[in-house]
Amino acid sequence: MLGLGVALLVGMVATSLWLVQANNKYSQETAELRRLRASILDVLTTVQDAETGQRGFLLTGDERYLAPYREALETLGKKRALLVERIGERPEYVNDLPKLQSNLDAKLAEIGRGIDLVRDNRTQEAIDLVRSDTGLAYMREIRDTLNRYQQTTDDRLRIIVADQLSAAENLRWVTILGAVAILAVLGGALALIMKYVRELMRSREEVDELNRGLEERVDERTRDLIRANQEIQRFAYIVTHDLRAPLVNIMGFLSEFDSSLKPVQAYVLAGDNPVSERDAQDAKIAVEEDLPEAIGFIRSSTRKMDQLINAILKISRDGRRKLQAEKVDLKELLVGAAASVQHQVSAVDGTIDVDVQNFTVISDRISLDQILGNLFDNAVKYQMPGRPLQLSARILPQGRGIVRVDVSDNGRGIADDDFERIFELFRRAGAQDQQGEGIGLAHVRSLIRNLGGDITVTSELGKGSTFHLTLPTDLRKITRGSDI
Predict the structure, then answer these.
(1) Per-residue pLDDT averaged across 122-144, rounded?
(2) Dist CA 165 CA 155 (whole Å)
(3) CA 2 vs CA 13, 42, 77, 158, 285: distances in Å
(4) Higher confidence at residue 24 or residue 44?
(5) Which is more confidently placed, 270 or 454?
(6) Which of 129, 431, 452, 469 has the fewest C-beta atoms lying within 10 Å of its C-beta?
(7) 144-147 long-range CB contacts below 8 Å, 24 or more apart?
(8) Model-level pTM?
(9) Alpha-carbon gap, residue 372 to 453, rounded angstroms
(10) DSSP letter, residue 474
(11) In angstroms, how far is the first alpha carbon of the chain from the final one?
């Protein structure tokens, strides 16, 4: 039933469109014919005005009577051209057009000669010219042709008006029938819709009940994961804090040992200690070379350990920091991150493209700023030597409360086997020609996961990398019920 109704409506719509198109065509032709009719009358009236001016001047010799003639001469050319243009290719007019043009030229020449004769005081010759009926013959031919044009135009207008009225009447009946059909189809459709809506409502209530249970379970699992992540961060904080205390003591003792070494070195080198020559030489080597070298290695190692522990403390502190959910414009953050590396990119003739739409999320601004800043810094740090850096960012809404931010570069790229390795703490991939401890991307992943999102990478060696950040558009839904 519905299919039949739709087919009927489609047929009526198609018929209505055809009738409307026909009506538009009739209206357009009617307008063209009316313009043509106006041009026919304009040419005839203008020629008659020119003839009137000639006759008045011929009778009185007064130049004032030539005003209609002068005006006709000025406007007749344009009016004739407009008439030819509006006739176009219509065969019922075109065949008589050359004869009409010839008669118009001859009539104007006859009028002009009569005026010239009067001006030369040859009035009698001018009167004889008029009495010769030459001009009368030209004027009769002009009138006959233009009257025939006008009659043809009027006949066609009557036919078009009749056809247009018939099309309008047909369109009216089609519209009435279409309205009746629409009401019938609408009634049937409403009955079917009501039936399906009732069934759909029952199904939706069942699905909503299942979804409520599922959402509760998902929220519970999310809170569990966040709490587990917090426990790991607290554990890392405790371990690093306890490790750093003895490290500080070791560094202090090394400084004191270094200070105590100077008087011993002076005593041994002075020869005041009663030892053998070999022992003295060994002591001298130890004091001058071995001990300073050992102290240097210990100090270097402790500095390295201190840097690593500070890095772990930084991650732990960021993870333990209370998140501040606020409205954040992702475009503003991307533009700020791009500005921070703009001078470095410009130095290698590179470009940064962050022409993205405004997109607002509710999240922790500090964490997002650190994440994007780290990714932009890495793109500059690991650019391909000799190739201008091209850095870009895109915002891709994913629906269902998720947004994705892609940060792409044309740098060195990452091997497939290292896609996960680069996110591990103190792990680095590729050529080790840049300073760092391998904590940047681990820090980024810790931050993004703390916001309820994640980070992945797609890359090809030698061509570049794209880091995909996914995060919820509303952090409050993720942290609700958790102690953050």
Answers:
(1) 85
(2) 16
(3) 16, 59, 64, 44, 104
(4) 44
(5) 454
(6) 431
(7) 145/96, 145/99, 145/100, 145/103, 146/40, 146/43, 146/44, 146/100
(8) 0.43
(9) 14
(10) B
(11) 60
